[in-house]
């Protein structure tokens, strides 16, 4: 009888290179850094492990925007006359996100080693669809803007995104 061909060994797929570390904040950022308690560190470790090993689930909520749409319709003509552009739904959503971040500041925080970094500035990214993909310019210190200011900033950034005129710091 002939000898069986030696079994081919399959090599394990190469591990993905590690993601470069993104700093939790830059020098000069308006942040408060607090050390994590032992319990919070253990919770963080288990959440990271769970993210790597468990199926992800998303929750979707339907929101009644009829009052926003009614208000928008009522003020649209005057808004265009006063500000030179249409009032969109986006600034209402951004304003709601800002209020949520003010109410629950830990959502506007990140982990940096054994510390929690609470970010005092509220910067909001707004996705802009482009023919060739998607880009997310950031409205820095969005909490300092009025509804009109947010509407103007979104319109400006979306227009500049479509013409490739955004500055690097506007997408960071």
Q: Keywords, please?
A:
37% helix, 4 helices, 3-stranded antiparallel β-sheet, single chain, 172 residues, alpha+beta, two-stranded antiparallel ribbon
Would you give an account of this structure?
The chain is of the alpha+beta class. It contains four helices and seven strands, in the order βαααββββββα. It has a three-stranded antiparallel beta sheet with strand order 1-3-2, with no helix packed on it. Helix 3 (90-103) crosses helix 4 (147-162). The protein is globular, with a radius of gyration of 23 Å. The termini are far apart.
Spatial order of strands in the largest sheet: 1-3-2
What is the rounded Rg? 23 Å
Q: Quote the average pLDDT.
A: 86
Basic shape: globular
Q: Classify the secondary structure makeup into a structural class.
A: alpha+beta
Summary of the model, kept short:
Helix content is 37%, strand content 14%. By secondary structure, the chain is of the alpha+beta class.
What is the topology?
Layout: E1 31-35, H1 38-53, H2 66-83, H3 90-103, E2 109-112, E3 115-119, E4 124-125, E5 128-130, E6 133-135, E7 138-139, H4 147-162
Helix pairs in contact: 3-4
